[in-house]
Amino acid sequence: MPFLPLSFFVAILLVILFVGLVRADNDGGSRNIPFLALILLSAFQAFLSGLRWGYDIVEVMYVAPVGAAFVPPLVYCGVVRLVHKDDRAFDWSTVVHALPAVGIVTLLTVAGWRNAIDVVLPAIFIGYAGAILNLMRRGPDALRKTPFESALPVYRALVFAALALLMSAALDLLVFLDFSWTHGSHAAGMVAIGNLIALVVLSIAAAVAVQGRNSSEVEIEAPAADEPSDKETLAAIQSLMETKHSYRDPDLNLDRLARKAIIPARQISSAINRATGKNVSQYVNEFRIAAACQLLAETEKSVTEIMFDVGFQTKSNFNREFRRVTDMTPVQWRSRRANPG
Which of 114, 128, 124 has the alpha carbon at shortest distance from 179? Predict the structure, then answer.
């Protein structure tokens, strides 16, 4: 029976994950192409790792660094599509993110420069990780194009992706030091296991982010003139929740909420943060949970029906937010309500 490296199985699983995400995207939503490309690239990199460390095909060393140089830009571009208003699939700045790969190709083709890859590649990973963490500095509110229901898990996934980039950079530096000190006696194990872990973490983060995407409609930013006070902003948002039941919109996100309220997104985020100490997704989801509690108490609807009625689309997100607000599951809440003693 032929030997099959673990990397090959990881590559197959990542391809299956990619196919599953593409097939699931049948609702007309805006695909996050960078994250989908990241999953495919991760599968390719895992396959190359299997060839190099499973079958000792050294020629792979001329391809793998180029593929690795595309990983951080893809993560960053995927994050940008969730953060910025501009949802164009391509613009001139995209070309800039190809420069790291061009730099690696240059180092590979110029004699005497190849050793510099061991320093340049970790620097690329560290630089992009820092840029991603900077984009995420406002917490879940930074994800203005992500529905409030999934803002928290997507935010966490993106932070984990940035940390995975840092882990990969640290691994590359450790391998460099291992070759310097012990002639690479530990390199094979570190690269094979460490890179696989990083690729899997990045792919899972990308999958979470892809599933948390928003629909492809064009959102219009509210004008910044005559910006309302925090009190006026909260009153406007509360009115949308209580009178128009805007929380029932499963695709409601910060951009869409700003358009409905005719208030700049940043003002909504800042006002809610300052007045309540919560991010916007938590604030909106609490209206959803309050409505769910009322339906649980006053109707015989199933938990799943109620979940959809109040704007949630997945049980995991609904149960997470319900437990955060009430410290119990929907079933436990209904049971205690029915049997208070």
Answer: 114
